[in-house]
Amino acid sequence: MKTFVSILLTLALVLSIGSVAMADGLIRYSKSQGPYTELFEDGIIPILEAQGYTFEVVEASDLLVADKMLEAGDVDVNVEQHTAYIETYFNANNDGHLVGISPIPTVPAGLYSAKHTSLDEIADGMTIAVTNDASNTARCLLILQKIGWISFDPAVDITTVTVDDIIDNPYNLEIIPVLNTTIPTSLEDYDFGLITGSIVWNAREIVDPSSALAQEDILPHLVLQVTVKEQDKDTEWAKAIVDAYHSDEFKAYMEEHNTGMWWIPEELR
Asked: Secondary structure of the chain: what % helix, strand, coil (to 5)?
């Protein structure tokens, strides 16, 4: 009986500590290198601090680490991923329970080159670097289809296409999957490189984001999301974050700071 009572008291203490934390309005978020956490810190946190919320940042070396911390309850939220990554990569491979609760502005993936200044310079046998990250390979390849350099079978699921799904390659392009983060620094090794938004943002001292020769059309599954554990999606603090992204204050912030690099979802405009 004493042991049972002790367990109950311990559980009550744990729950009490958690309740106090939320009552104090503390929101813990993970920070990976990229534009989306920066936007959260500069454009969203001030709105929520004015409402009485406080914030604690936890550094994450990459998105997978950030998601594992979120799943474990070490942080409450992150803003670094799109729906495809949440569902088809993290949740599917890690028995995860993460959900997106609001779209946020997104930096599109683009086609870049250190050797060429126009799409018209495409020639037979040129090399194209594309990310080997499964959740982003399709979005990059779709840029090549958009500009007419390759095509896929219309029956193929465009959210999961790979190099093997190409049915027409009129320029005999050599499409080379490489680590996403290395493409900006190795761009001179290829004729063109396809770089996702967060990567080109981090490498903007090397690659000018405005120099993209083509950009993706943002499909619904590629829109960045505020991400939380499913059990937290209806909490007051989660709703407050969503409301902040939809607020007039944030619209004004984006109007002032968007130099054309950000794609903004319709519902946030």
From this structure: 45, 20, 35
Residue from 12, 14, 46, 54 nearest 237 by CA: 54
Which residues constitute the domain of residue 37?
A: 2-106+221-268
How would residue 41 be classed by pLDDT, with cut points 50, 70 and 90?
A: very high
Distance (Å, rounded) from C-alpha 53 to C-alpha 48?
6
Nearest to 199 by CA among 218, 213, 179: 179
Give the tens place of pLDDT for each residue, 163-215: 999 999 999 999 999 999 999 999 999 999 999 988 998 898 899 988 999 99
Q: Measuring CA to CA, which residue among 105, 40, 44 is closest to residue 66? A: 40
Q: Do 117 and 59 lie in a common domain?
A: no
- Residue 26 CB neighbour total at 10 angstroms: 14
Tell me the three-class secondary structure of 46-63, residue by residue.
Answer: HHHHCCCCEEEEEECCCH
The tally of CA atoms less than 13 A away on the side-chain side of residue 11 is 6
Q: Give the number of domains in the chain.
A: 2
